[in-house]
Amino acid sequence: MDKTPIFPLNTIVFPGGYLPPRIFEPRYLEMVKNCLKENSGFGIVLSNNESHYSIGTYCKIVDWEQLPDGLLGILTRGKYRFKINNSSIKDDGLLVSDISSIDEPEDQEIPKELMPYSNFLKRVLDEYPKFYHEDAPTYYKDSQWVGSRLAEILPMSSSEKQVILETEDYLVRLYKVKDFIDSKKTNINVL
Fold this sequence. Notes:
By secondary structure, the protein is an alpha+beta fold. Helix content is 31%, strand content 29%. A 5-stranded mixed barrel has the order 1-4-6-7-8. Helix 3 (143-153) packs parallel to helix 5. The chain starts with a strand and ends in an 8-residue tail after the last helix.
């Protein structure tokens, strides 16, 4: 199996989420070109100082454009979580890895006591559609989708978002997001 290109960033994308990175480094321009040509994707992992985390999200490019500043703008969509098994660096500096997908648990409907957080997400996305791709479907009753979208848009630290990404149980993820929101009651009004 070919190794998967890895793109370490200072941000996280969750499965089902969208991320619009701007590409300018030659190694990543070549990576994007190859992904488009082969209809393949790449892994996005959170950069950790001089290193990176081993759990990330495999993404596919859904759109691209040449930006006015000359950079390449791409829109990626997270497909599934993965774990890096081993890595190497190509001659051009591109990190490539053997990855294995992480089995996802069955999604669970959001319990009644957490529906205010789903409603909060709906209000945010209605008011600020830039936080989620406008043509993408929404799943306001699914714990995985709601927890992931909230984690993407809330002002959590990258390491807090990484904890959410690595959490296996969708309801536990959503409760962690709830705890974050509740801890910021003065700044975030859910009701």
